[in-house]
Amino acid sequence: MVVDSDAGDHYTVVDTDQAGGTRAAVRHLLGLGHRTVWHLGGPEDSFAAQRRTAAWREALTEAGRVPPPLVRGDWSADSGYRAGLELAARDECTAVFAANDQMALGLLRALHERGRRVPEDVSVIGFDDIPEASSFLPPLTTLHQDFAEVGRLCVEAVLRKMRQAGPERGTTLVPTRLVLRASTAPPP
């Protein structure tokens, strides 16, 4: 039993649909009229960050857009702040998909300090839907991960393995849900 991994067909894997959630974020921002979507990606060695970055590139390419340069963080609000200072200096940056809510929080602070208003000047979407996301300023549009469902499916898979003689293999993806709040709007 493996969670949040690319173990593929060698094991039983349960994971959040990283790619599906990312595509929903990119589609939402492009649907608002943004010409492109910048990505504040997670660490290179993270499976979830790899999946989200690949899906971001694919979604933009499928929409006929050239992906802008990737900006990377380490999942922390501090790294989001540092990346946000870089993104705030780019006038062409009107939409950012942050690979998690903590980095989005740091990004929001950096944009605010540099005089870039969210969502009027820059739209921001996070990933996770942490309990505090609705209390960010502005409240963060984000992708909800159903960790309880991931856990439930893991327990079910372990119990099935205990009852069966043969190994169960394959990947089960738990869908995400886009939670719309106040951090996204059409571009200026």
From TrEMBL:
Pfam entry (one): Peripla_BP_3
UniProt cross-references to InterPro entries, sorted A to Z: LacI/GalR-like_sensor, Peripla_BP_I
Alphabetically ordered keywords of this record: DNA-binding, Transcription, Transcription regulation
Domain Transcriptional regulator LacI/GalR-like sensor: from-to ranges: 26-184
Cited SUPFAM superfamilies: Periplasmic binding protein-like I
GO-annotated molecular function: DNA-binding transcription factor activity; transcription cis-regulatory region binding
Stated name of the protein: Transcriptional regulator LacI/GalR-like sensor domain-containing protein
Species whose genome carries this gene: Streptomyces haneummycinicus
